[in-house]
From TrEMBL:
Belongs to the CRISPR-associated endoribonuclease Cas2 protein family. GO terms for biological process: defense response to virus; maintenance of CRISPR repeat elements. InterPro entries: CRISPR_associated_Cas2, Virulence_VapD/CRISPR_Cas2. This is CRISPR-associated endoribonuclease Cas2. Keywords: Antiviral defense, Endonuclease, Hydrolase, Magnesium, Metal-binding, Nuclease. Mg(2+) binds at residue 8. It comes from Orenia marismortui. Gene3D superfamilies: 3.30.70.240. NCBIfam families: cas2 (TIGR01573). Homodimer, forms a heterotetramer with a Cas1 homodimer. Transmembrane segments: none annotated. Its EC number is 3.1.-.-. CRISPR (clustered regularly interspaced short palindromic repeat), is an adaptive immune system that provides protection against mobile genetic elements (viruses, transposable elements and conjugative plasmids). CRISPR clusters contain sequences complementary to antecedent mobile elements and target invading nucleic acids. CRISPR clusters are transcribed and processed into CRISPR RNA (crRNA). Functions as a ssRNA-specific endoribonuclease. Involved in the integration of spacer DNA into the CRISPR cassette. GO terms for molecular function: hydrolase activity; metal ion binding; RNA endonuclease activity.
Amino acid sequence: MDVLLIYDISEDKIRNRIAETCKDFGLHRIQWSAFTGKLNHNLREELMLKISRVLGDSGGNIRLYPICSKDIKLFREINRVGD
């Protein structure tokens, strides 16, 4: 299943470790604090456990949204590179 993971974490070290964890799970960065990719139920649970451990007692907000195949077909993107 496709997923969208977004986060808001103020501490640089933790934010970078979470980004690396997302990459380790095969997710692709689409914005500075947003990743997308395909994860089954077990991998989604494992990813969130690992991210929770990395976050520890630090402040932050992490959201993982599963996206069904019907909705992912509606995906549209505008990506323009300016001068």
